[in-house]
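Journal club prep, shared notes

We agreed each person brings one worked example of a sequence with its structure written out as tokens. Mine is Serine carboxypeptidase-like 2. I'm keeping it raw so we can talk through how to read the token line rather than staring at a rendered picture. Sequence first:
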Amino acid sequence: MTDCCPLTIEYPDTSKEIPDLHLNPYSWTKLANVIFLDAPTSGFSYAKSPETYKNSDTLSAKYTYQFLSKWLEKHSKFISNPLYITGLSYSGITIPLIVQEIFNGNEAGNEPRMNIAGYVIGNPLTDRHIDFNTRIQYAHQVALLSDEIYESTKGNCNGEYVNVNASNKLCQRDLQKVDECLENVYVYHILEPICTSDTTTRSLLQQKFGSSTNKYPVPLPRAAKLKGQQWCRDNTYLYTDVWANIQSVRKALNIREGTIGKWIRCNDDHYVIGKNDTVNYAYDVSSTLDNHRNFTQKNCRALIISGDHDMAFSHLGTKRWIRDLHLNVDSTWAPWFVKQQVAGYTESFSHDDFTLTFATVKGGGHAAQEFKPEECLAMVHRWFDHNPL
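Then the structure, token by token:
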């Protein structure tokens, strides 16, 4: 999960050619031994043939299971450790598939047997229909849509905003109005500014330094100020692009020459409603709700986290699919605290040996720990120790 990592990239001095790396005081490595894995494959991962480069949701889970099996065979001292699979966002699709592969492997008698204890997912895409459909409901609840626009859209579309009949002109009209209200809102944190052609510094950096990554450009916040631009979060992510494409960094990381061209931080086209398969990737799972139902029959723990200012996959959709699991309610909605301040709200559920804790992070965005790292570290620390949040 992003920003659980032991290192952060800071905005350096203009005299330096590469970003500064600093220890993250809120890294989850303070609590556990962590394997950071690009899954589905991305980053510096590569294939030796075009055929093996092709991937899918289900294949990615199988590859991850194979990786964990080989890793544990080589590092057998960790086999007895409780194993938690964690991630965020699109991992709401892949993590339940991985956990299912592990349970299936254990039940089939595969070795090494993995001591799977549970999973943690932040602002997950769990069910495309539920999660995309609740965006409009969320936008209304946080006053981005008026009562009139919401009620008209809900009525004319019959509460269905994903699979819309093209002949339903009233629904199409209302959705156009919704788009006009939301298109300039930053979907990953509704209170933050969206990056626009006027606020992005990418064109400025390319103009000043070309496409070369051998030199480090003017720090993004400072570059923005040079043009009188407003800060926006996506610009800060460009630091990772710069750092990962510096030749000395690649050499230090032992990246094999010729395997990867330009390093790209993230492919976000899977967040598009109705996204079709690409040449190399098949989005072959639209919902993992059945996997969560399967886990209710296992000895398993789950922690589901929602930054409450995320509109991409809001807490409303998450709460809806959790209700669909029909679990027993162990504790009802209540605040949880960090340093005597409300850090969010939580409720817990169970069925036999399965437990699920749901928690919102007050002020958190799509990756809650990126926006509220101290609070999220405190949360997972308590949860890993089997304590109430």
